[in-house]
Fold:
Amino acid sequence: MQDLSTLEDKTILTGDRPTGPLHLGHLAGTLQARVAPQDKNDVTILVADMQALTDNAGRAADVAANVREVVLDYIAAGIDPDRVTIVRQSDLPALSELTMLYMNLVTVPRLMRIPTIREEIAQRGFGDGTPAGFLCYPVSQAADITAFGADIVPAGADQAPLVEITGEIAGKVNRMAGRNVLVTPTLMQSNAPRLPGIDGAGKMSKSAGNAIALRDNPEEIRAAVMRMFTDPGHLKVSDPGKVEGNVVFTMLDAFDPDATAVEDLKHQYRAGGLGDMVLKRRLDGILQELLAPMRARREEAASDAGLVGHILEEGRKRAHMTTMETLGDVRRAFGLEGRPGRSAALTELVSLGEDCEAGKVHEGLVGAISASHTRFSA
Amino acid sequence: MQDLSTLEDKTILTGDRPTGPLHLGHLAGTLQARVAPQDKNDVTILVADMQALTDNAGRAADVAANVREVVLDYIAAGIDPDRVTIVRQSDLPALSELTMLYMNLVTVPRLMRIPTIREEIAQRGFGDGTPAGFLCYPVSQAADITAFGADIVPAGADQAPLVEITGEIAGKVNRMAGRNVLVTPTLMQSNAPRLPGIDGAGKMSKSAGNAIALRDNPEEIRAAVMRMFTDPGHLKVSDPGKVEGNVVFTMLDAFDPDATAVEDLKHQYRAGGLGDMVLKRRLDGILQELLAPMRARREEAASDAGLVGHILEEGRKRAHMTTMETLGDVRRAFGLEGRPGRSAALTELVSLGEDCEAGKVHEGLVGAISASHTRFSA
Structure:
């Protein structure tokens, strides 16, 4: 990741699909990098449950349940919900409306040519059965990015074609509008390597069962480190060992604060005479130290039953207003009139239900709602 | 069209893409049939501007402008906006959200196999450039149909595969929900033949320049009838003429109230001795008589500058509530919580902006809106 800690006054959007608990791979990849810019920038983290459904419609209940876990993982990683907007994608109707409009500006072959989409379709083994929602998720992601007016999207290189298509859509909308209503985003590319799974067989992922989750307890962490793939040719302590492809060293590179010590260890390991257990104990100690405060923050947050709901509701209120304003601009570019533009403020009332019920508006609201119900039952 | 006048207590959805004025082809195809059931059924007519954009993104302003024309055409054709809900598709955010969810339940090859879509892609000459929105419009249409809980969809045979895919989606959602939250619709197929254009070269369409629009004035109607394709081999009045493919006879079959007289005329024409001008004058008289009261109703409606806006706003209020309730059910089937379910009534407040401002709620609303603005500018 480029140095996000130097950014100021940027609008930054990142997010995760809530398909499982966040793990060390996420931490090394983007989570740590989201903490740095949260003071001096407008940072939004989208819990992309609608995007998760594009390849998980069959396990929709899991996706919904994972939203809470992912928010707790954010808090664990040090993201401060008072400074960052954490919002659930399905809470923002403007994103669906923007997606529908943008889908008219992108062709099917353009989507099919995106390398990331082609790889993901192959990986998921959809075969002939790629859901329409999956093919179109880049359009949905363009809606996410532009809805918030994000100028910086921190993500891996695989996201470059998706940020590019977002720029194309923004350009088309701006030409239709005759002015720049949408921001063309810039990818801030991660230079962190993708963390392998503990089995060394691929990237770390919960579904592959090769992950260390942020929420794992000390015993789970230790057991995972002890199972970690090293060098299968390194049979005796005295044998020379290989560092490349040795997951323990990859983890030390990623998380050991003492890079010089790690280089010394690599030297000893290659020469022979350094046992895997020594390395694994060192890594276990580092990971325990890294994850213990995260687990503590997570447990504290989880013990407050209403906290996640409150965070998401606060995020929704803020993000609803922003995204509805963008939708209003885009609708006007398409020649569509009024509704969101006119009623963005009124729509915001939906967000204020609680406030209203507490205040003097209560009586009038109840009257208005009853009147509307009467009208429909008549 | 099967006899819609016998229907009772059905929920019926029909609609048109606002890409140009409605014409005799629409009148023969579905417009007349929509008038009959409007008393004893719950009829909604959707002005499908979002669907029109799926192949008209480049002329979005025309689509927006045509919405008003199409509503005036409905009134012209005898549809009573007090008994029928006339609503603009882009006014209903629930339809976009439903489409996004349904897109996860339909595969890309399933959409590409729909014969109607394949034909339309070929007709439009998209080549490799089919917009994603166009490929997915059957999903959007399934959202329309199910959002209103329509059990009857009156349409041509070309719509059968689209109603079928709607049934598939409804079945999947119902299985996810564990109960029947969505209605499986039935196509009520038109048996009216597709009306040819006045040039006899294809079906009547404004873009082909071969249509007689409901709003055409007497001179335009007469001129179109006089240009109408008959039998190019029928050079002299005394020559035998062909009835098949003769547009004048097709029009007489569709609109002449005296079917026996038309059969007699066909007989004479085939035998020879009946001139085209005699037939064209007859047809002109019939069309003038048919369209004059429609034009009068249209002109009266058009002279009331606020009428179309009022009709669409009334339609929106009713349809917003219905479609948000369906969205709430579908969201729950996908494991998504609360928002539309919880706040359907509050969202309805958006519809009540005017009422609110008039009433005692006003002061509180203004306060709430100011508070929310302050929060975002802070």
Observations:
- Chain A touches chain B through 79 residues (CB under 8 Å).
- The radius of gyration of chain A is 24 Å.
- The longest strand of chain A covers residues 11-16.
